[in-house]
Amino acid sequence: MMISILFEIFIIMVCAYAAGLLGGLLGLGGAVILTPLLTIFIGLPIQYAAGISLSSAVGTSITSGYRYLKLKIPDLRVFLFMASAGTTGAIMGSLLLYELMKTKYNWILYIFFSIIMYIAAFFTAKQAPKREMEPLSGISNKSKGLFIRGKYFDPSLHLYVDYFVDKKRLFESWGVMLFGGLMSGLLGIGGGPINMFALYGIQSLPIKVASATSNLIVGVTASTSGSIYWQFGYIHPFLSAVSIIGIIVGALHASSLLPKTRGSTIKIVLLSVFSYLAFRMLLSGLRRGNIIIISQDIEYMLSFIVLILTTIIMFLLRDRVSE
């Protein structure tokens, strides 16, 4: 019995470390990765896995966010504006989850999670921002008021990178971020994939700036959703404590890696993780809804094959992946 408990604690810490590492590096906060991992490897119901993941995501946001702020990578103006949307959506999503869990259709959450991941992956793969190194010298003084300008130092490129955000796109992405907050509360994912779509896909922020800014936003949305999950009894204190330890270690590692990592590498890993989690949760939802009859071993094997194939294909196409 004791060995079984210790092994389960070990698995949770490993999953949390992986979630913290990837979440901190990719701007996902870790919850979007930890929720399916706890569901898959520990067998936790999705609402309890989501509760643990949300509390852990706050640790990722604080840990990696502190380092990123010291390096002046996040765009605080964008963060402050977009966080209001994420918080509003998180409250709505958490209340919706509570009502949905009273029904027998909670397996739909798994499929919905998968659809959101596929949509985010599609737009992330499609996006190839060309503004990242575009100077503002060609913009008139009158037009400059329509843009938010930023700059950060990229150690991997050994230069300062100028960028700007169209304020019209800022307002357009607010609605997307509201939806991301809704997903944070409903699925316990911290809104990371939707945040990255809004910041990188719509606003065309450089991927490192988008990742660092998303980490801060995830902390706000996850703490909002997590407080409501706690009220509903969906957060297990002991398991959350174990998870937070692992996820903070992973986030610390990620914060030291991000400044040195090429943007194309971050994007390849991001898409590979998206494809694995989306496919795995889709199979799990279909199985739980008795739509398909397959064993969990087959689910693991097929999902792992998808992960390997996606990673290989992305690295083969690396020259076409934008920084």
In short:
With 323 residues, the chain is mainly alpha-helical.
Overview of this structure, please?
With 323 residues, this protein is mainly alpha-helical. It has one domain (2-262). It is 73% helix and 5% strand. The chain is built from twelve helices and two strands. The longest helix is centred in the last third of the chain and has 26 residues, at 207-232. The radius of gyration is 19 Å and the shape is globular. The N and C termini lie far apart (49 Å).
Q: What are the main properties of this structure?
A:
323 residues, mainly alpha, two-stranded antiparallel sheet, 12 helices, globular
Strand proportion? under 5%
Sheet having the most strands:
2 strands, antiparallel
Instruction: Write the H/E string, N to C.
Output: HHHHHHEEHHHHHH
Radius of gyration: 19 Å
Question: Looking at the structure, what is the overall shape?
Answer: globular
Report the strand count. Answer: 2
The helicity comes to over 70%
Mean pLDDT: 79
Give the spatial strand order of the biggest sheet.
Answer: 1-2
Give the class from helix and strand content and strand pairing: mainly alpha
Low-confidence stretches: 128-143
Count the DSSP helices. 12
Separation of the first and last Cα atoms: 49 Å
Number of domains: 1
Any chance you could write out the topology, listing elements then pairs?
Layout: H1 2-26, H2 31-42, H3 46-70, H4 76-100, H5 108-126, H6 141-144, E1 147-154, E2 159-166, H7 167-187, H8 192-202, H9 207-232, H10 237-257, H11 263-288, H12 296-316
Antiparallel strand pairs: 1-2
Helix pairs in contact: 1-2, 1-3, 1-9, 1-10, 2-3, 3-9, 3-10, 4-7, 4-9, 5-8, 5-11, 7-8, 8-9, 11-12
